[in-house]
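Please go through the sequence line and C-alpha coordinate line underneath and see whether the fold suits the sequence. See right below:
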Amino acid sequence: MRQPTDHSVLEELDRAECLRLIAGVSVGRVGFDDGQGPAVTPVNFALDGETVVFSTTLSGRLNRSLDTLFTDADVRIAFEVDRIDEETHTGWSVLLRGGARRMPEGERAPVEPWPDGDREAHIRLTPTEVTGRRLRSP
Protein backbone atom coordinates (compact mmCIF):
# COMPACT_ATOMS: atom_id res chain seq x y z
CA MET A 1 0.00 0.00 0.00
CA ARG A 2 1.24 3.48 -0.82
CA GLN A 3 2.24 5.79 1.97
CA PRO A 4 0.87 9.37 2.10
CA THR A 5 4.42 10.67 1.57
CA ASP A 6 4.89 8.68 -1.67
CA HIS A 7 4.30 11.10 -4.50
CA SER A 8 3.66 9.98 -8.03
CA VAL A 9 6.02 11.09 -10.79
CA LEU A 10 4.57 13.15 -13.64
CA GLU A 11 6.03 12.60 -17.11
CA GLU A 12 5.24 14.04 -20.53
CA LEU A 13 4.27 11.56 -23.26
CA ASP A 14 5.27 11.79 -26.91
CA ARG A 15 2.76 11.66 -29.76
CA ALA A 16 3.36 7.97 -30.53
CA GLU A 17 2.77 6.93 -26.91
CA CYS A 18 -0.37 9.09 -26.70
CA LEU A 19 -1.85 7.44 -29.80
CA ARG A 20 -0.88 3.97 -28.56
CA LEU A 21 -2.69 4.59 -25.26
CA ILE A 22 -5.94 5.86 -26.74
CA ALA A 23 -6.04 3.13 -29.40
CA GLY A 24 -7.12 0.69 -26.68
CA VAL A 25 -9.96 2.84 -25.34
CA SER A 26 -13.51 3.33 -26.65
CA VAL A 27 -14.80 6.36 -24.70
CA GLY A 28 -13.41 9.89 -24.78
CA ARG A 29 -14.67 13.40 -24.11
CA VAL A 30 -15.23 16.08 -26.72
CA GLY A 31 -14.71 19.70 -25.66
CA PHE A 32 -16.44 22.26 -27.87
CA ASP A 33 -18.23 25.60 -27.80
CA ASP A 34 -21.96 25.03 -27.93
CA GLY A 35 -22.79 28.70 -28.43
CA GLN A 36 -23.29 29.23 -24.71
CA GLY A 37 -19.67 28.55 -23.78
CA PRO A 38 -17.40 25.56 -23.29
CA ALA A 39 -19.13 22.17 -23.14
CA VAL A 40 -17.82 18.64 -22.72
CA THR A 41 -19.61 15.43 -23.65
CA PRO A 42 -18.52 11.78 -23.63
CA VAL A 43 -18.61 9.83 -26.90
CA ASN A 44 -17.68 6.39 -28.14
CA PHE A 45 -14.84 6.72 -30.63
CA ALA A 46 -12.33 4.88 -32.75
CA LEU A 47 -8.84 5.79 -33.84
CA ASP A 48 -8.38 5.75 -37.63
CA GLY A 49 -4.66 6.17 -38.16
CA GLU A 50 -3.99 9.44 -36.33
CA THR A 51 -7.54 10.75 -36.59
CA VAL A 52 -10.41 10.26 -34.16
CA VAL A 53 -13.83 9.34 -35.51
CA PHE A 54 -17.10 9.32 -33.60
CA SER A 55 -20.82 9.73 -34.18
CA THR A 56 -23.52 11.75 -32.51
CA THR A 57 -27.18 12.64 -33.00
CA LEU A 58 -28.16 15.10 -35.72
CA SER A 59 -30.15 17.19 -33.24
CA GLY A 60 -27.52 17.22 -30.50
CA ARG A 61 -25.52 20.23 -29.30
CA LEU A 62 -22.27 18.73 -30.54
CA ASN A 63 -23.49 18.27 -34.09
CA ARG A 64 -25.09 21.73 -34.13
CA SER A 65 -21.80 23.27 -32.98
CA LEU A 66 -20.12 21.90 -36.11
CA ASP A 67 -22.42 23.94 -38.34
CA THR A 68 -20.46 26.81 -39.85
CA LEU A 69 -21.10 29.55 -42.34
CA PHE A 70 -18.52 27.95 -44.63
CA THR A 71 -18.96 24.68 -46.49
CA ASP A 72 -16.40 22.04 -45.50
CA ALA A 73 -14.83 24.25 -42.82
CA ASP A 74 -13.18 22.67 -39.79
CA VAL A 75 -14.38 23.56 -36.31
CA ARG A 76 -11.75 23.51 -33.58
CA ILE A 77 -12.48 21.05 -30.80
CA ALA A 78 -10.58 19.25 -28.06
CA PHE A 79 -10.71 15.54 -27.39
CA GLU A 80 -9.56 13.97 -24.10
CA VAL A 81 -9.07 10.37 -23.04
CA ASP A 82 -7.74 9.22 -19.67
CA ARG A 83 -7.35 6.35 -17.28
CA ILE A 84 -6.85 7.24 -13.60
CA ASP A 85 -6.44 4.93 -10.60
CA GLU A 86 -7.39 6.91 -7.51
CA GLU A 87 -6.12 4.25 -5.13
CA THR A 88 -2.56 4.17 -6.51
CA HIS A 89 -2.51 7.81 -7.71
CA THR A 90 -1.37 6.67 -11.15
CA GLY A 91 -2.76 6.99 -14.64
CA TRP A 92 -2.52 8.94 -17.85
CA SER A 93 -4.32 11.63 -19.80
CA VAL A 94 -4.14 12.43 -23.53
CA LEU A 95 -5.43 15.60 -25.20
CA LEU A 96 -5.92 16.04 -28.94
CA ARG A 97 -6.79 19.41 -30.46
CA GLY A 98 -7.54 20.25 -34.03
CA GLY A 99 -10.18 20.63 -36.69
CA ALA A 100 -13.32 18.53 -36.79
CA ARG A 101 -15.80 18.16 -39.60
CA ARG A 102 -18.61 15.90 -40.64
CA MET A 103 -17.53 12.92 -42.67
CA PRO A 104 -18.64 12.83 -46.32
CA GLU A 105 -22.09 11.46 -47.12
CA GLY A 106 -22.03 7.67 -47.06
CA GLU A 107 -18.87 7.49 -44.92
CA ARG A 108 -19.52 6.22 -41.41
CA ALA A 109 -17.49 6.21 -38.23
CA PRO A 110 -16.67 2.56 -37.35
CA VAL A 111 -18.01 3.01 -33.83
CA GLU A 112 -20.65 1.12 -31.90
CA PRO A 113 -22.25 3.70 -29.56
CA TRP A 114 -23.23 2.46 -26.10
CA PRO A 115 -26.52 4.42 -25.90
CA ASP A 116 -29.53 3.40 -27.91
CA GLY A 117 -30.77 5.66 -30.70
CA ASP A 118 -29.60 7.00 -34.02
CA ARG A 119 -26.13 8.50 -34.31
CA GLU A 120 -26.35 9.81 -37.87
CA ALA A 121 -23.74 12.58 -37.69
CA HIS A 122 -20.30 11.03 -38.26
CA ILE A 123 -17.39 13.27 -37.33
CA ARG A 124 -13.65 13.15 -37.95
CA LEU A 125 -11.11 15.05 -35.82
CA THR A 126 -7.74 15.60 -37.44
CA PRO A 127 -5.46 16.61 -34.58
CA THR A 128 -2.84 19.30 -35.03
CA GLU A 129 -1.72 18.84 -31.44
CA VAL A 130 -1.42 15.62 -29.43
CA THR A 131 -0.14 15.87 -25.87
CA GLY A 132 -0.22 13.61 -22.87
CA ARG A 133 0.99 13.05 -19.35
CA ARG A 134 1.40 9.98 -17.20
CA LEU A 135 1.45 9.73 -13.42
CA ARG A 136 3.48 6.73 -12.30
CA SER A 137 4.70 5.36 -9.00
CA PRO A 138 8.19 6.51 -7.97
In short: The mean pLDDT is 86. Strands lie at 9-13, 27-33, 38-48, 51-56, 75-85, 90-102, 121-136. The domain at 10-127 is CATH 2.30.110.10 (Pnp Oxidase; Chain A).
